[in-house]
Design a protein that fits this description.
Chains A, B: It is an enzyme of class 4 (lyase). Chains A, B: InterPro entries: D-Glu_cyclase, Putative_hydro-lyase, UPF0317. Chains A, B: This is Putative hydro-lyase EI983_13040. Chains A, B: Its EC number is 4.2.1.-. Two copies of one chain form a homodimer. Chain A is of the alpha+beta class. Helices cover 21% and strands 25% of the residues of chain A. Chain A is built from seven helices and eleven strands. The interface between A and B is large, with 41 and 41 residues.
């Protein structure tokens, strides 16, 4: 039995995850679990976990860490009461020797005692906030994937993890750019403020009509291209590291956490506004 | 030759670090390198680094990670161009088997090829901001150490690291508490917003006049006690883990980085306001 997107959209996060876990839903998570932090996923062996965590710490805009599992424990207990990372994501990508080797809907058979799971904040969070402020996002209105580009911005390496920063692009009316910067900077766990505004060539992008990932979005009169650090960056770093086995979410198919989008810190038990206990 | 605090106060961070490195200054760093992020220090062997980094990620209010070294490399290259963590802190505490075994002014002889150095944000940052807003801080005006208490708030464990959250207390005029919360919440790399406002008993503190660390500050009429997560928390977790050898800064004797206090992300190369390149 499958549950439709429109029904799931109105359900709380625990029910959405239950539907995903029960194989009743295996599609994208945009718009689900409204108000809650969604996360990209990277699972890799403990032997590379410290270097990967250092890579994320050094590149917090593309790789904002929202949760890290204990080694071998699939329960992401800081992000929700019942999150089993082996089953609670709608679709997973399996990488072997740095190459995509297939997609699956659970990783119960692939889970290893030496695995460490990383949850990294994603752009859905600030996109919701921009839409609520009345800023239209072309890719959402046209049901396409946001255009993403390999920029000329170097990330800070850590061990085998390195590479250029991948950025996502959204056309923003010139008069609202400052507002967009202010809104997105409120979400440091979701890429924060843009990394670049204006001329794409300044960050090594020669053709906005030919994104490296996702779908092209048209240039709009009176609007400027605004670029955010993108969660594909760690996927590229993982691919280029060429680890024997590593698992990510399938793009768009995120982990829905119990952490508020407005949380000061990524811990669902500390979800009080700004964490202050009075 | 030694250089006086009043002279150093007017010097840029690189000169302050040079004086510390050259053994010309070995005292506290409050008020030095104005406008720059200062950091607590924890150095431990790589075998415990992943667990310690998970502990900090899970407890970001007491343990905000601002930088992590490569294993065996003492240069903290994300925090400044020339920071050698073996020499650039005025005084270090050496812990053996979880017990304080002495203090030194450099660790050139103690540095190991398997060491990983962690820099963690400290309260100096938001204290400067509060003072600039005209909010008096008793311990600074009276040249004492801020009172710190072992609270009843549990931290989230990771491997051998666990324990209660240590909090620092500042008396704040009741009418300015909201402002103080708003100001300190701008500095998530420096403990962010308070964890508790008001009745100390609610977080397990029975006697404000008897702090566990630092000096008592008097209760002031019209003021309420405000409690922040404190950087002594990871020191307590390290002590209770009982590692054979681990090194921290001596309290008050911090690392002065080249990262702006206002930086969105802890990387001195990305110090543009909010990191936006336009």
């Amino acid at each position: 039995m499958t549950i439709g997107y429109d029904i799931l959209k109105e359900r709380p996060a625990s029910e959405v995850r239950a539907a995903i876990r029960g194989c009743e839903y295996a599609s994208h998570t945009a718009g689900l679990g409204r108000g809650l932090l969604q996360a990209n996923l990277a699972i890799l062996p403990e032997s590379h976990a410290l270097d990967f965590m250092r890579y994320c710490q050094r590149n917090p805009k593309p790789c904002p860490i929202s949760g890290v599992s204990d080694t071998g424990n699939p329960m992401m207990f800081t992000l929700g009461a019942d999150i089993d990372i082996r089953t609670d994501i709608p679709a997973y990508n399996i990488y072997r020797d740095g190459k995509l080797a297939g997609s699956v809907t659970d990783i119960l058979d692939l889970w290893q005692e030496d695995f460490v799971a990383f949850a990294l904040g994603c752009s859905f969070t600030f996109e919701n906030a921009l839409q609520q402020a009345g800023i239209a996002l072309w890719h959402i209105d046209h049901n396409t994937t946001v255009p993403m580009f390999r920029s000329s911005i170097d990330t800070v390496p850590a061990g085998p993890f390195s590479g250029k920063m991948v950025v996502s692009m959204r056309m923003i009316p010139e008069a609202r750019v400052d507002e967009v910067i202010a809104i997105s900077s409120k979400y440091p766990l979701a890429h924060g403020a843009p990394v670049h505004v204006g001329d794409p060539a300044k960050i090594g992008i020669t053709n906005l009509a030919a994104p490296d990932w996702g779908d092209a979005a048209p240039e709009t009169p009176g609007a400027v291209p605004v670029f955010w650090a993108c969660g594909v960056t760690p996927q590229v770093a993982i691919e280029s590291a060429g680890l024997p086995l590593c698992i990510t979410h399938k793009p768009g198919h995120m982990l829905i956490t119990d952490v508020s989008e407005f949380a000061e810190v990524p811990n669902y038990k500390l979800n009080e506004p700004k964490g202050v206990n009075r």
